[in-house]
Amino acid sequence: xxxxxxxxxxxxxxxxxxxxxxxxxxxxxxxxxxxxxxxxxxxxxxxxxxxxxxxxxxxxxxxxxxxxxx
Length: 70
Prior knowledge:
By secondary structure, this protein is mainly α.
């Protein structure tokens, strides 16, 4: 039961981090209207990237753990 609760919490956090990352990016760059110059990632964007990787890994490990027979 504890694993189910942890997986739900991690999935909600993962969705929130992904949505926060996507804020500010639109479809204009997909159709050639981006026109942005190369710039380095700011510290907050780096934190979102690492949080996404960490939460995605935890979600995958919990999913595998829930598949194992008890």
